[in-house]
């Protein structure tokens, strides 16, 4: 099967930098994704890493190390609107692209 | 429409009734996924399709759950003989292909009394 571990909650202040870690176990691996979900809303895609290294998209960056089965999402210049839940998701499994989501990290940004 | 749509947005039913949840993906998207999401949890995979073919249904909880996508576009998730434990948010997502980002719909909140 597949499993992911991420912290349940992270707090930070406006303007700061925060890192949300994700470790995973999967049989077969096709990439690690990150999604953001505000209360009452649908998950929205942030980033995808299939290969090792850092992917940068504006204030958000995502990192992957396949040898360590580890990735993180880095959020810079935090804004109040970044308060949301963040999910890492891995695709894996034998012969199938089954997506598995972590339990989510609740990010609380304080003024 | 521009995004993924789902209907109904809210469904209240009595235990033992059948329900059908509809998903209308982004036009042209090959892959369509069904998830169930409990409060405070991540989406839990149920099943997915490429075009009209169901690729994997290993996440369906039991044989009361079924899904179809007969023409490779709109999909229906059917739950027969609903039970209270089926109450949840059911989400649909589509992607251009299996390896691309998923676009989620607003979900259907199912309540079984």
Structural commentary:
- The complex is a heterodimer of chains A (111) and B (113).
- Chain A is mainly beta and 111 residues long.
- Helices cover 0% and strands 58% of the residues of chain A.
- In chain A, strands 2, 4, 5, 9, 10 and 11 form a 6-stranded mixed beta sheet that branches.
- The model of chain A has no long low-confidence stretch (mean pLDDT 92).
- With 113 residues, chain B is an all-beta fold.
- Chain B contains no helices and 11 strands.
- In chain B, strand 9 and strand 10 form a beta hairpin.
- The model of chain B has no long low-confidence stretch (mean pLDDT 95).
Task: Please provide the ordered H/E string of secondary-structure elements of chain B.
Answer: EEEEEEEEEEE
| Approximate shape of chain B | globular
Give the integer mean of the pLDDT values of chain B. Answer: 95
Q: Find the structural class of chain A using helix and strand composition.
A: mainly beta
- What profile does the largest beta sheet of chain B have? 7 strands, mixed
Name the helicity range of chain B: under 10%
Oligomer: heterodimer
Q: Termini distance of chain B?
A: 33 Å
Q: What letter string, H or E per element, gives the SSE order of chain A?
A: EEEEEEEEEEE
- Shape label of chain A: globular
